[in-house]
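Notes to self after the Tuesday call (sharing in case useful).
The group wants a holo model before anyone commits to mutagenesis around the pocket. I volunteered. Ligand is nicotinamide-adenine-dinucleotide. Logging inputs and output together so the record is complete.
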Amino acid sequence: MSHTHPATELRATVARIIEKAGSLPAEAAQVADNLVMANLSGHDSHGVGMVPRYVDAVLEGGLKPNTGIKVTLDGGAMLGIDAQQGYGQITGVQAMELGMARARQHGSCIMALSRSHHLGRIGHFAEMAVAQGLVSLHFVNVISRPVVAPFGGGDGRFGTNPCCIGIPMGAQAPYVLDFATSRVAQGKMRVAYNKGEQVPEGYLIDEHGRPTTDPGVVVRSQGPLGALMTFGEYKGYGLAVACELLGGALTGGGTWHQQADDRRAVLNSMLTILIDPAKLGTQQALAQEAQAFADWLRASPCAPDSAGVQLAGEPERAARARRAQEGIWLDDATWQEIQAAERKVTR
Ligand code: NAD
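Result:
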């Protein structure tokens, strides 16, 4: 049995659980808003299905409720920030607010955020930047189970290291490119596994390094482990390594180079580059050229069996409009896991 939930009901449920797990009401509400927004945007992998993992991480001590950022370096247009393992939905927003203020002041800002708990959908931060007319680039690494195989390798060695680019487009809706460097997000394998579905070929390898369509190889907590493949063969692999080096090494947050363990916390470190086109003197040109180029792309004839040309950010906006009306569908396994998580923190 599956359930469709209005966003308001899910927000209240998630906020209640996060609060029971130790967060103050304002923090719990912000985490809940962020997770439900991921579902509304069509990314169930980064939505309320993360709650059981967050609860486990709090109980284990790897996720620290009511913990904000600490600025470790303030060089004006260069910021070093320790997120101290607080909720990424809080620390990421705090860090972005600081970074955006500096970008508006100096024209650009390089912000190195280390040791945040799961930052969720990275596009959320690009959306904050473009709303203020800023360009933003994000390179993120993931300290959790190493679930993605290097190109040419036969086991998981790093995380789904997301990369995200936000560009304001003048009068039209912004460009928000936001993706995992794995062929698909790990959470999408959890969603497929919970629905009892197989996934297309080219996503996964099994414990022998052979192709498989069983999402269980990266979801089951016991048994032989497989791995996700990167997108775009060695090119996606190259970008994943760049995310590990920029997001993990350059920020000081750390890279993954050890055997997998069972810890439930998911730590993200993120290198963010913010640019203010107004300070660069190209705000007008950006708006005009972005419009002209987007029009040019959209004039391309529709390929056979295709929905036509879209620009990144459009699918998420369309999903939001649809799901705000229809509600958010959750499979039964996900809903049961959320209820079980609530019981763990109900005294
Ligand atoms: P995805 O494969 O659905 O790709 C999403 C991107 O592609 C979006 O920018 C979207 O607008 C664009 N897109 C989709 N269809 C398109 C089309 N037809 N034409 C043009 N553009 C199109 O996303 P994903 O790789 O599964 O990642 C999902 C989410 O997971 C992202 O928000 C990412 O930040 C997040 N993530 C987070 C972590 C973490 O540790 N915090 C790790 C991995 C992924």
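Two things stood out.
The chain has a mean pLDDT of 96.
Residues 177 and 261 are 31 Å apart (CA to CA).
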